């Protein structure tokens, strides 16, 4: 052991700052300057630290709603009483509400057209849906009555998807106003017309599955940073909503099973005695219990009852309410305890028989895994229920979400379908945190809910399965988007309605950026503390981008403005190039002080590419994965060529010494072996990043070194770095773990690069790449749903 340490002593690396004489005067830009006036000025409501200020306020709305589902006419009738609380310092002369169902109307929609080109083939159903709207197609909200609590009519104006109520008198600070609205609308076939809510028809058994979303007139947000958020709803930019308490009653066919936001208050009136007993059993079970069984659902499909039942729900401190109804549903549930707050949650799933073999095995377990994992990275899950509904789409609401995941007709499924289903469940359940609790303005900034949620989704998928084929999060998966021509790109900080590449821009790029911050720039400890601080500060509040950026800086003591500027406000990619390596023998009398370095001997990574997060998660003994027992017992496919292979932990030796002159005299002869290497880099892409190098020596040993992104602060285009070794280098590799989303790896090498040892090894590498591509590209549930990329 002494011999190894002695040898390593003279393998110390010396890193020097850039030679000032070689620094051109004109290459200092603004990449490392503060964001300054790009961000809104801190004030009494929102502080410079990113926290809510002393004067922070937000308004509130409570709802009492009754609904009647007419299955024969596919029509929904509703009546609501809204109590709106003005906590703002402003006098309000009118209120704005959202009429989202007008999206489907040919005469009431927002009218945001996109250009189009003549296709080679036009499906008949598509042709029908694009006929010129010469008349009202019968969809959209029909307002029957708008009145105050005394029954007096209120003046109102409908502008497309927005409704203004003119108040009879000014609503002052601290006052509340209660009013009533009666309305109805024809429920659209969402499989044909698109959108988030509607019905899906199953012609084999003649039944419908209803997802009732954006279904009631909802209050707009009035805030300190925007005033009324009454941007029109075009179908893309999602929702800005206020918190409040809900009481909702649904009158549905007696053989329907209903699930919704919140808790049911009258299970004893709507369930059979057997189902009620199973419900009570599920409340204490650590395994999913079928509350409505497969046999019961198959039997109900044939009944088409004309009787009615009323389901009563309550939900406290939520921003929205959604529900689903069908006689096709199987329903299972189990108890989950959130360790951080000891909250007991009912994790549940509802699904038709077409999804049984997948959802029965995985859905409720994925729900439980998601709320527990998100609770670790953000805030403890506060609600009593979390539900996943199979409805051939993907969309989220408080305590309930709609996902896809059906088997083949014979009940079989592929690994790709299974992973796609688990991924979308994690994503949509995760939206309970972003934006249902950390309640950002989705209508303006899609990335604040989709991007942040996709990032934590990636962490959660990793905890489910270290080999999970995540499409968004690892740095290397964003490269194809980042290398597009600049005319096809726009900054993350772009309004939802104007984004061209919506999936990469709103989901992938922000998620990848946060992963790079966590793994490569800040480190997990600093990042996780700052991210949890943001979640805690803005839980049940309305954060804006500046609040996120400032909190991450404030809680970490890292000035990340250079990163926010480049990654969120810019479109430059990462492309750092090794331009030249100069080898020489230095003057040994001038050897300066060393810095702390790490000498790393690693086991070669094998088979498919393992990104930095997967690698570190395997080494982290504090991380618990979804249990292998569950995988083995529930999933036949897991036993095929799987398992968490054991990777030997890298041996790391750290050397700290003040000066090589302190080396014993008998060892100074080794200094004669020193070789000096000056490595010249250029920033071809424009986006600055840390410089991560892996050195391979002629004796086969390896050394890694990382310089922070601040190495570019005095010259954003070119920089040089000098190293001294007592061994000869065989090769240098830049960004060996693909941590920085470098779009061109052809300029990331110097020297001899090891080739695969045989044609068979080359074949295996190609096959692994093809398999990853199929797993990442075969299933795209968001596109299948018509909702999101």
UniProtKB/TrEMBL annotation:
Among CDD domains, the record links this protein to: M1_APN_like (cd09604)
Signal peptide bounds: 1-17
| Chain spans, region Disordered | 767-789
Question: Is Signal one of the keywords UniProt gives this record?
Answer: yes
Mind listing the UniProt keywords for this protein, alphabetically?
Answer: Signal
Source domain of life: Bacteria
One Pfam family for this entry, by name?
Peptidase_M1
Question: Where in this chain does the record put each Peptidase M1 membrane alanine aminopeptidase domain?
Answer: 370-567
- Indicate what this protein is called per its UniProt record: M1 family metallopeptidase
Organism ancestry: Bacteria, Pseudomonadati, Bacteroidota, Flavobacteriia, Flavobacteriales
């Amino acid at each position: 052991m002494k011999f190894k340490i002695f040898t390593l002593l003279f393998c110390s690396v010396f890193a020097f700052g850039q030679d000032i004489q070689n620094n051109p005067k004109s290459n200092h830009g603004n990449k490392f300057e503060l964001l300054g006036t790009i961000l809104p000025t801190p004030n009494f409501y929102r502080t410079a630290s990113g926290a809510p200020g002393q004067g922070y306020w937000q308004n509130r709305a409570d709802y009492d709603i009754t609904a009647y589902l007419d299955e024969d006419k596919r029509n929904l009738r509703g009546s609501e009483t809204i109590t709106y609380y003005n906590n703002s310092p402003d006098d309000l002369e009118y209120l704005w509400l959202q009429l989202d169902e007008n999206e489907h109307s040919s005469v009431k929609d927002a009218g945001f057209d996109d250009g189009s080109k003549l296709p080679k083939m036009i499906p008949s159903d598509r042709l029908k849906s694009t006929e010129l709207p010469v008349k009202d197609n019968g969809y959209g909200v029909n307002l029957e009555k708008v009145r105050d609590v005394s029954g007096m009519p209120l003046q109102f104006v409908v502008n497309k998807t927005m409704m203004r109520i003119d108040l009879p008198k000014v609503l002052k600070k601290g006052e509340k106003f209660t009013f009533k609205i009666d309305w109805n609308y024809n429920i659209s076939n969402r499989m044909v017309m698109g959108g988030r809510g509607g019905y899906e028809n199953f012609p084999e058994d003649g039944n419908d599955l209803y997802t009732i979303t954006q279904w009631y007139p909802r209050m707009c947000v009035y805030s300190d940073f925007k005033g009324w958020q009454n941007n029109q709803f075009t179908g893309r930019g999602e929702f800005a909503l206020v918190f409040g308490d809900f009481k909702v009653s649904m009158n549905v066919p007696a053989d329907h099973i209903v699930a919704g936001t919140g808790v049911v208050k009258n299970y004893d009136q709507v369930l059979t005695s057997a189902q009620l007993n199973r419900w009570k059993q599920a409340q204490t079970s650590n395994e999913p219990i079928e509350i409505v069984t497969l046999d019961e659902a198959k039997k109900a499909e044939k009944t088409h009852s004309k009787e009615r039942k009323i389901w009563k729900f309550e939900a406290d401190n939520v921003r929205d309410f959604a529900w689903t109804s069908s006689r096709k549903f199987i329903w299972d549930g189990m108890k989950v305890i959130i360790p951080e707050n000891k909250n007991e949650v009912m994790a549940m799933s509802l699904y038709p028989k077409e999804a049984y073999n997948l959802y029965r095995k995985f859905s409720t377990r994925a729900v439980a895994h998601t709320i527990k994992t998100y609770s670790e990275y953000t805030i403890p899950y506060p609600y009593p229920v979390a539900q996943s509904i199979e409805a051939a789409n993907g969309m989220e609401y408080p305590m309930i979400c709609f996902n896809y995941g059906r088997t083949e007709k014979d009940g079989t499924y592929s690994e790709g379908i299974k992973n796609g289903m688990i991924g979308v469940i994690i994503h949509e359940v995760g939206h309970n945190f972003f934006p249902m609790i950390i309640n950002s303005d989705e209508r303006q900034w899609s990335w604040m809910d989709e991007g942040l949620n996709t990032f934590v989704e990636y962490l959660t998928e990793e905890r489910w399965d270290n080999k999970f084929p995540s499409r968004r999060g690892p740095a290397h998966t964003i490269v194809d988007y980042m290398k597009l021509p600049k005319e096809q790109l726009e900054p993350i900080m772009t309004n939802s309605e104007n984004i061209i590449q919506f999936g990469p821009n709103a989901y992938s790029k922000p998620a990848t950026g946060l992963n790079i911050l966590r793994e490569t720039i800040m480190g997990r400890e600093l990042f996780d503390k700052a991210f949890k601080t943001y979640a805690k500060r803005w839980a049940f509040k309305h954060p804006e981008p500046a609040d996120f950026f400032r909190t991450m800086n404030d809680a970490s003591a890292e000035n990340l403005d250079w990163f926010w500027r480049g990654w969120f406000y810019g479109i430059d990619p990462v492309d750092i190039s090794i331009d030249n390596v100069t080898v020489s023998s230095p003057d040994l009398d001038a050897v300066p002080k060393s810095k702390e370095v790490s000498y790393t001997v690693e086991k070669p990574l094998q088979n498919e590419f393992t990104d930095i997060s997967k690698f570190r998660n395997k080494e982290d003994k504090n991380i618990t994965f979804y249990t292998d027992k569950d995988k083995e017992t529930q999933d036949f496919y897991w036993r095929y060529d799987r398992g968490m292979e054991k990777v030997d932990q890298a041996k790391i030796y750290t050397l700290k010494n003040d000066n090589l002159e302190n080396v014993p005299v008998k060892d100074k002869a080794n200094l004669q072996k020193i070789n000096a290497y000056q490595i010249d880099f250029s920033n071809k892409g424009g986006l600055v990043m840390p410089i991560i190098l892996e050195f391979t020596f002629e004796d086969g040993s390896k050394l890694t070194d990382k310089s922070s992104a601040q190495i570019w602060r005095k010259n954003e285009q070119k920089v040089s770095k000098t190293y001294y070794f007592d061994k000869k280098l065989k090769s240098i590799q830049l960004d060996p773990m693909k941590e920085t989303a470098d779009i061109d790896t052809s300029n990331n090498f110097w020297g001899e690069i090891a080739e695969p040892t045989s044609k068979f090894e080359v074949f295996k590498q190609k096959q692994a790449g093809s398999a990853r591509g199929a797993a990442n590209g075969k299933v795209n549930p968001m596109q299948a749903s018509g909702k999101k990329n």
